[in-house]
Amino acid sequence: MCDLMPASQPPEKIGKMKKLRRTLSESFRSIAFKKEDSSFDEICVTKMSTRSCQGSDSVIKPLDTIPEDKKVRVQRTQSGFDPFEKPASQVKRVHSENNACINAKGSSAGKESPKLRRHSSPSSPTSPKFGKADSYEKLEKLGEGSYATVYKGKSKVNGKLVALKVIRLQEEEGTPFTAIREASLLKGLKHSNIVLLHDIIHTKETLTLVFEYVHTDLCQYMDKHPGGLHPDNVKLFLFQLLRGLSYIHQRYILHRDLKPQNLLISDTGELKLADFGLARAKSVPSHTYSNEVVTLWYRPPDVLLGSTDYSTCLDMWGVGCIFIEMIQGVAAFPGMKDIQDQLERIFLVLGTPSEDTWPGVNSLPHFKPDRFTVYSAKKLRQAWNKLGYVDHAEELASRFLQCFPKNRLSAQAALNHEYFSNLPPRLCELQDMSSIFTVPNVKLQTESGDSIQVCARRNSQGKASSGSKH
Asked: Would residue 257 show up in a list of annotated catalytic residues for this protein?
């Protein structure tokens, strides 16, 4: 078994991390008293970036070495065991840790939006306002993890449903870095296919991230439709996933934890990227990144082999795995034992790599040729037969699932692939905040037992795979 756990940090570095977390925690506490919309970015991004430029003692590098027990994970029930997730007895199955928030934004200093004035008069100091803990009513608990609890809630300001991600703060540790990163990155991302972070509430005991409420995720959606999704719905979900990824990749942000549980599905069929706790801004100076990213089933072979030098291609492998899972109805590479088993499953289909097929593979920390059975590459339809029933699906999947990272197709290039040729051209011209469902005739197909209430209309050239739901 390949050991990818990061080396233990010297005591002086651990001390610096604790001191920084306490400093950042104190900084968050001041947010509730600041009205300027830019205050959060100044507190989080400035403090992180200034410390990241201090050479080898930078705190940026240890951000990636957060132990798995500090991360909220969602237990997948129908795809087997994931060694990186807690047992079901410890982590409850939830809709998603990031189901979340409201559509309106609080006003800046000295001004109030028309929406806010309708609900809260400036002359009434007791009226609910954004940024206050008492501005939201908890309706029900959606799930609980090792350091955060997610509630379905309601805004007292405008009556909208929200999701409240309540992060417990430790006196010694301060604010978890995953929460700092998630909030600081999402604060600047505005796209219809990325979950909206609306509000941040800080108290002495907790940090609460308030998101738009999205009622399910792709994992649950697929669980309700075993055997694979309708091929037209796969196409629309994949297009939205690529839209969201193209948006963040153009801003040099890597998601680093793509999996069905982190892709939210709204009641209209809109897919939204969520859970940016492991996300990373590529522009932040760092000598290397962590190889402890991405849930095992969706982790690319270069990272499994110990590579810490990666870019947006990291996310594109996960796209290929999710694409196949939506079509076939089963996970592409469901490793059941360890990293060795995960790599064997990948090489069984794609072929065991060599210097000829993957330049530089011999220099990766955990690649030892004598540890792996030598397999030859197969056609993807031999492993997943339903790829052969949909035009251009197999070719697109093969462009994502490349062992050599530099050969993987980018999100932006994938949007122009022939697989999407029967979709309306207007989809590629939409503004960032415009949903694909604003385009006429773009609708999800009805699937057996579908809980999403949408009008069903088949795309003019859409094909149905045998065994798919109609």
From this structure: yes
